[in-house]
Amino acid sequence: MTALRSRANLPPKDRHSPSAAPFTAEDGPSDSTSKPEPYLSDPEEGPSRLSLLDILRVLGGLFLLSSTLSYFITGDSILWGYRPAITRPARIKAWLRGPYDLTDAQLSIFNGTEPTLPILVAVNGTIYDVSASPHFYGPGGSYSFFAGRDATRSFVTGCFDTDLNGDLRGVEEMFMPLEGEAGDDPTKEGRRERKLRREREKRTARKKVEETVRGWERMFDGGKDGKYFKVGKVDRGPGSGWEGWGEVKELCQKAREGRPRRTAEEVGGRG
Q1: CA distance 110 to 131
Q2: What is the DSSP string of 220-246?
Q3: The three-state (H, E, C) secondary structure of 12-73, written as one string
Q4: Mean pLDDT of the region 37-44
């Protein structure tokens, strides 16, 4: 007991005698202001990299954020209004069933009067499913007269009472100027020029018909929001019962009245 008290009472300089182990950096910092050394990665491990799981987490977070914003802004969609085909049962059902190959007579059955059948329309021989808009194409709808038929001619002329068929023969005339009074064409050169001009106008008019038809095809083949889609073709081949459109029809009144007029120079044979 006396020895312990005598050791505790030793002066500070005696506590660290020369025989004691010297103080090293491993025992702790000698200066309270010293800074720790920066962390150095093991050169054998290489630089730190993102794992695949980290990337998936980031992408998942961005998708969740985008979906949340889309729902709050649009009110009903997590994809900013876009609805892929996989979310449309009607389109999936059509894919599983396969393409339609219908005659005009068979196509007429798909006019919306049978609830178990889709509503179909045809443009230039191609069939489209418009079941997504029964209020337009179904019974009583504002465009119900298009359902169950190929009404391409009326799409061009705008005559929905007389041109509900797919006959495009002669419809290009609606884009060609009226002949008017051209006089006697005193020279052979003048008559030849009029003929060449007429041929140029017919080619231009046919291109306008094609552009109009393509516009309707684009509208039904996906539409603005993808709710309409192509499902098949109208069969007008041998054995289908197809006998043609008959005689070439005259332009309907609306199409005739909308034809352009020639200028005075064109009437005189100088255009």
Answers
A1: 10
A2: HTBTTTS-BEEEEEE--STTTT-----
A3: HHHHCCCCCCCCCHHHCCCCCCCCCCCCCCCCCCCCCCCCHHHHHHHHHHHHHHHHHHHHHH
A4: 54
* The amino acid at 139: P
Ramachandran assignment for 87, one of left (phi > 0), alpha (psi -120 to 50 degrees), beta (any other): alpha
Q: Provide the β-strand partners of residue 232.
A: 100, 127
Q: What is residue 150's three-state secondary structure?
A: strand
Q: Cα–Cα distance between 140 and 127 in angstroms, integer? A: 21
Q: Which two tokens stand for residue 149?
A: 């038929």
Say what the pTM is. Answer: 0.64
Euclidean distance between the first and final Cα of the chain, in Å? 134
- The model's confidence at residue 237, banded by pLDDT at 50, 70 and 90, is very high
> Which residues are registered as beta bridge partners of 233?
101, 126
Instruction: Report residue 56: phi and psi, to 5°.
Output: -65, -35
pLDDT, tens digit, for every residue of 62-93? 888 887 887 778 665 666 666 555 556 666 67
Contacts (Cβ under 8 Å, ≥6 apart) of 86 = 92
Instruction: Encode burial over 233-248: b for 16+ CB neighbours within 10 A, e otherwise.
Output: ebbeeeeeeeeeeeee
Concatenated DSSP letters of 117-142: S--EEEETTEEEE-TT-HHHHSTT-T
Q: What average pLDDT is seen over the chain? A: 79
Distance CA 209, CA 244 (A): 20
